[in-house]
Structures are given as structure tokens and as C-alpha cells.
Amino acid sequence: MNPLYPIEWAVAWLMVKFHALLSVFMDPNAGITWVLSIVGLTAVVRTLIIPLFVRQIRASRAMQMVSPELQAVQKKYKGKTDQDSRQKMAEETMAIYKEAGASPFSSCLPVLLQMPIFFGLFRVLYTKLPQAAGGDPFGPLTVELARSANASTFFGNVTIADSFLSPGDGGISTRIVAGIIIALMCAVTFITQKELTMRNMPQAALEGPMAGTQKMMLYMLPFIYVITGPGMPIGVLVYWLTTNVWTFVQQWIVIRATPTPGSDAEKARHERINAKRAKKGLEPLDFTPPKKVVTEPVEDKPIRIQPPAKNKGGKKLTDQEKLERARAARAKAVEERRAAREAAGEADPRPQRGSNALNKSARKKKRKK
């Protein structure tokens, strides 16, 4: 049994339904009507996987954002080939992914989900359509509809079942149309990938092996279309081009609305917001993130206490008494500093130079006495 049969049947059903809708105000036997039916099929498929697409954008963004942390883990275990080190490296890597909400597989979900639909459409146009036109109907694709789709032309004698390698009656016209569609697919894919990997990423995420992989895909994906495109029917190329344009527009909307922090896209969004505020006569907003002030705990600072050699009565102190007095003086100094810090709020708890000078002069006077 053909595992793609349900998908092929659903693809044919959607094409037929969109063809019937478009035939209300268009010529049902025109090639452009069948082309737009495939565009409608693509719109339905891409609408259904919008949640997966948003997840893909977030996953790709998170994967590049954690690239510096992954590099640090790889550097930490560089040269260590024992089983324990490999296991710890894998655990730390997965912990980074989990904390950032990134998944190496999430970015592939939309593509993996569309592959069966892509192959289903390929089989419908390449196999089922000629068979149905020859008298063997396939589900909703009747003999009359199949003959209409197989014979309807646009841009001369080009049909949706022809391809660059099998131009049919269209000849050079089919090859020109296929070449234009493949060139547009490459251009749209290149721009889409560049927007995602360059404009929507901070500078720190554009370095390292993950960024290198993204840059390689920037040039490899369009090249794949050049290799596989000539063997695909025009209808499949229309589906492919439509889904690429849909991806570009959808990604542009997501990046414009929620850009990655620190990226050029975020800077452009801030400039747009302030430009709108300036037109309304409002003050511009400051989007600079506040700097974190890290203060060292007062208790961790070493406090040097020099116990006096004698007590007030002139009696010489034992070593144990000196130690106890030193500890008490230290605890008192810590409490005084903590109280001073609480009174000053977030001010720097370190003593000023003037107070140091006074403390030194006071100690000198005690020694003279």
C-alpha cells in the first residue's frame, strides 16, 4: 500500500475545490486557474503550520544566542576523550539548550511536515494527473478535470505538468518559465536566510561553529534548488515558490514585531518607535538596558584588627584573651559597616580616602600613647 495515498488524495481534493471556487469568475480550462489552485493549496498548508513556523523562528534564534555558551563548554572539554568527560559535556550542553528553550530539532519541524505534502503533490502532477487524463480517475480528480489540467496552458503552451527537463509542447517557453521560477526561489530563499542569520542576530551570536553552519546554509539552500528544480513539474515549482514567498513574508512580520535583543532588527525597531513619538511631539524612549551594579558582600572583606598589648588596667593579656578581643572587634566592625551600608542605601560601602586617612592618623596617636 502506498503510504502517501491519503496525502495525495487530500492534495488532489484541495486542488479541485480551489479550482471550483476560481472557476466562478475565471476560465476553468485556463492554465492560470490551475496555477492559482496550487497557490491556494499552498496557502492552506502554510496556514495550518503557522504555530510550527513561529516555533522554528524562536528555536533558530535561541540556537544562535546560546552559541557562545556552547563554545565555552566545548573549550572546557577540549582534548578530553574519556567517557566521563563526554557524558558531562553532553549533560552541560543539554542543560544550556533547556535553559534557553532551544531545540536542534524544532527548526526542522516545518520542513519535515511539508515534505510528505511536497512529494504527494509531485506524484499527483507527475503520475496521477496523466493517468486520470488517460481514463483512470483518482479520488476527486475526475477524468474531465484531469484532462482540463493536463491540457490547459499559460505563457504559450506551458502546462503545470511540464518541467525543464521534460518541456512537452511548450519547448523553450517551458524552460524559460521553469528557469525564472527556480531563480526566484533561489533569490527569495537567500534573502530569507540572510534576514534570519544576519539582521536578526546580535554580533556575539555571529561567531562560532553554529554561525558558520548558518552561513553555509545561506549559500547551500539556493544551490539545492538549482540541482533539483529542473526535474520538478511546473506545478510543484509553483508550490515551492509560493511557500518560499510565504516564509519570507511571515518571517519579516515576526522579526519586525519581536526582533532578537541586541540585533540590528531591534535597533531598527527602536528607531521606528522613537520616530513615531517624535511626530507626536513626545520625548524619545531610552532602550539602553540598565547596567548591573555588583557589590561585594561586606562580610567577605578581610578586616585587620590589631589588639592592644595591654588592657586599661595595665594587666598583660593572655593569648586566648587577645584572640577573643580580636574576634569581638572584628564582629563589631562588620556590624558597623553593615549599618553604614544600610543607611547609605545602594552607595558604595567601601570607605572613602579621607576616612582611611583619619583612621590611620587615629591609630598612630594610639601607638604614641
Written overview of the protein:
- It is elongated and about 120 Å long.
- The chain is built from 13 helices and no strands.
- The chain is mainly α.
- It has helices spanning 5-22, 31-48, 50-65, 67-76, 83-100, 109-133, 143-151, 172-199, 209-228, 234-257, 264-279, 319-344, 353-368.
Fold blueprint:
Layout lengths: L4 H18 L8 H18 L1 H16 L1 H10 L6 H18 L8 H25 L9 H9 L20 H28 L9 H20 L5 H24 L6 H16 L39 H26 L8 H16 L1
> Globular, elongated, flat, extended or rod-shaped: what is the shape?
elongated
Strand fraction equals under 5%
Radius of gyration, rounded? 36 Å
Helix content: 55-70%
Can you count the beta strands?
0
| Average residue pLDDT | 76
Keywords:
about 375 residues, mainly alpha, about 0% strand
Briefly say what this structure is.
With 369 residues, the protein is mainly alpha-helical. 66% of the residues lie in helices and 0% in strands. It is built from 13 helices and no strands.
